[in-house]
Amino acid sequence: MTGAEAVLAGLDDEQGTAAAAVRGPVCILAGAGTGKTRTITHRIAYGVHTGVYVPEQVLAVTFTARAAGELRGRLSGLGVGGVQARTFHAAALRQLRYFAPRVLGGPMPELVENKLRVVAGAASRHRLTTDRTSLRDLAGEIEWAKTTLATPDDYPARARAAGRETPFEPAAVAAVYASYEQAKQRDGTLDFEDLLLVTAFALEEHRDVATEVRGQYRHFVVDEYQDVNPLQQRLLDAWLGGRAELCVVGDPHQTIYSFTGADPDYLLGFPDRYPDAEVVALERDYRSTPEVVGLANRLIGMAPRRAGLPGLRLRGQRAAGPEPRFVEHPDEPTEAAAVAAACRALVDAGVPAAEIAVLFRINAQSQVYEAALTDVGVPYVLKGGERFFERPEVREAVLLLRGAAAGRDDGTPLVTAVRDVLASVGWAEHRPPPGGAARDRWQSLSALVDLAVDLVAERPDLTLAGFVGHLAERAGAQHAPTVQGVTLASMHAAKGLEWDAVFVVGLVDGVVPIAQSLARPDAVEEERRLLYVAVTRAREQLTLSWSLSRQPGGKRPRSRSRFLEGLAPDTGTRVRRPSARRAEVVLDGAAGELFDRLRAWRSATAEAASVPAYVVLNDATLQAIAETRPGSLSELSALPGIGARKLEMYGADVLATVGADSSA
User: Labelling 4: which of 225, 385, 543, 625 has CA 20 to 30 A away?
Assistant: First the structure.
């Protein structure tokens, strides 16, 4: 058997077809668990062993340094060295360092290591009041703008069209963006987005640079192609220079980073751009049991059909395993305790703690699971973020609470005292701010209030000093060694990972899908794909759970995630909801009657204002109102789609329709 034949041996039929397709253009649709890394490394090795590729002329582009390292390691094991496997930024940096004297007239400029410092200066020049959280959100918006090739002038319209939740008015963000760019030009520095932009410019505008780079790299492989953004695609096009020696690998069902600028249309439209492309689908799932695979297929099968490439339908290759479990709980602490107990049982049965994961939608959900696992003596590792009590906003809050406890004992109820202290650092009840980092901060501080509420329910006489002591005990317990621990991770942070047993928790509408996605069908569908990613992380055991109330004794206003419709058994304790594909809303009993009254009110209001009905309030918001029946403006403001302006314009009328007193 020749070296080339040996490379193909052991691959399944579809993997072998993809590996043997060494001439581009090639599109490999690789479903979860189908062996995509094995396929692309064997494809490169086969091209080298057959003499089609010179190793040094192959550039394999990945999204993480870890993935690039894994590619190099596997290629080495196949007897292939010299292939360049790098991230977009690493490849651009290497090229720009070499060509800087020709392109920029001097040595490579200094890179901005701390973008927040430059953003802070730009924000200050425009007299914006910022903290670290809002600066992170501003930096995130600038990064989004640059990766989508939006200029400061373009930004406001582009941000509105994309439904961005901006930390300040779009015009203010655009002004900061412009000042940020001016500051870099003045200092002669580049940021990481500039690396890609300037390298692309060098190839586009300097023929000698393009000739040299394109002579060096003749064959390209791009992994995770569904996550490519317009800036990365521009650089890739500059590298290619009109050639088609390109292999892309991706999964349309795992497109979960549109909020960062990723554009799945590059993958979905690949055959349109390259009509002669060979498209190979990898659908044999070697990771998960047929039961997990079946659930994943049913979940993603409910999504609307997207234009472009055909969807993937996984086929489980492992032996049968247990059916996925669906569990409803009365409240979040009960849900967390049940998950922790199940983790304890798995560990006691011999499952390594590192082979267990608890996945949630937002980082702030981790706190109750950190506490529950600590209570049952199961170590854990928090992935993709700091431990709850190590987060800057939590440390700051604990210090302030400790100071308040030492400085007063005036009989103020504990929950009121905690809210007062957190209000001093900008927290406001029912007012989650726009922006990812700002919302995470708000959620973390809200978790402290929730903990105070829960403790008071158990110990009505608990003082602020006692609460601070309780926080210290929890923080201390979490500093125990956690090398071998259950993984706690957000669904985004879990992408690319897998475990024997996975618990997907907190599956209620407003969390999965997240509330701010409800106004845009495309955003809701990205939330479905995010849940699909979470489900496909499980090898053998999968549990999906939700709770009807945030705390014990709550009024249970929540519905389980709409994505579970048709998948989970009907418990009979929730409001019935149709598939997210359907435009109509179906509610039972009194909720349905109220929904109809709200729609009638909305129609009359919209007609009087000569605007479309959805401009007043959309169906998702009306549904939330009908389900929860808010009794005050404060309760109404907590619902998705009710901002300060709409609360002012429609709040009293909505409460009157509900039958509540708006003065309450």
Answer: 225
Query: Distances in Å between the alpha carbon of 561 and those of 206, 330, 532, 589, 603?
Result: 53, 15, 13, 20, 28
Mean pLDDT within 450-475: 82
In a domain, 77, yes or no: yes
Domain CATH number, residue 336: 3.40.50.300
Annotated binding site for ATP: 30-37
The candidate with the shortest Cα–Cα distance to 216, out of 95, 38, 392, is: 95
**Could you tell me the CA-to-CA distances from 611 to 256, 605, 648 in Å, in that order?**
33, 9, 18
Q: Say how far residue 108 (Cα) sits from the centre of its chain.
A: 34
Q: Could you report the per-residue pLDDT of 61-77, keeping only the tens digit for each?
A: 998 888 888 899 899 98
Q: Which of 186, 218, 235 is the last residue of a domain?
A: 186
Confidence of residue 645 (pLDDT cuts 50, 70, 90): low
The side-by-side arrangement of strands in the sheet containing 325-329 is 325-329, 538-547, 499-504, 356-360, 486-490, 380-383
Question: What's the domain count of the chain?
Answer: 4
CATH number of the domain bearing residue 630: 1.10.150.80
Give the residue with greater pLDDT, 574 vs 81.
81
**Biggest distance spanned by C-alpha atoms of the chain:** 85
For residue 461, give the amino acid letter: D
Q: Structure tokens of 371? A: 């506490």
Q: Is 125 exposed, middle or buried (0-12, 13-18, 19+ CB in 10 A)?
A: middle
Residue 553: band (very low, low, confident or very high) from pLDDT cuts 50, 70, 90: confident
* DSSP states along 493-549: TTTT--EEEEEE---BTBBTTBGGGTT-HHHHHHHHHHHHHHHTTEEEEEEEEEES-
Kindly state whether residues 143 and 164 are assigned to the same domain. Answer: yes
For 40-66, the pLDDT digits (tens) are 999 999 999 999 999 999 999 998 888
Report yes or no: 551 and 450 within 8 Å, Cβ to Cβ. yes
Annotated binding residues: 30-37
Judged against a pLDDT cut of 60, whether residue 581 lies above it is answered with no
Q: Record the tokens describing residue 55, joined without a space.
A: 């190793």
- For residues 356 and 538, is the Cβ–Cβ distance under 8 A? no
Q: Residue 72: what are its φ and ψ, rounded to 5°?
A: -65, -40
Q: Residue 434 burial (CB < 10 Å; 0-12/13-18/19+)?
A: middle
Residue 275 domain-assigned? yes
Verify that 205 and 88 share a domain, yes or no: yes
Model-level pTM?
0.74
In-domain check, residue 298: no
Q: Given its phi and psi angles, is residue 73 left (phi above 0), alpha (psi -120 to 50 degrees) or beta?
A: alpha
Instruction: Write out the residue range of the structural domain in which residue 46 sits.
Output: 3-93+196-282
What percentage of the chain has pLDDT greater than the value 70?
Answer: 90
Q: How does residue 663 score in pLDDT terms, banded at 50, 70 and 90?
A: low
Same domain, 359 and 218: no
Tokens of 415: 């929950």
Q: What are phi and psi of 543, to 5 degrees?
A: -125, 130
Residue 595 has pLDDT above 60, yes or no: yes
Give the CATH number, domain containing residue 159.
1.10.10
**Could you identify the residue written with the tokens 């498209």?**
279
Question: How confident is residue 589, by pLDDT bands cut at 50, 70 and 90?
Answer: low
Strands 284-285 and 315-316: parallel
The answer to whether residues 343 and 484 belong to one domain is: yes
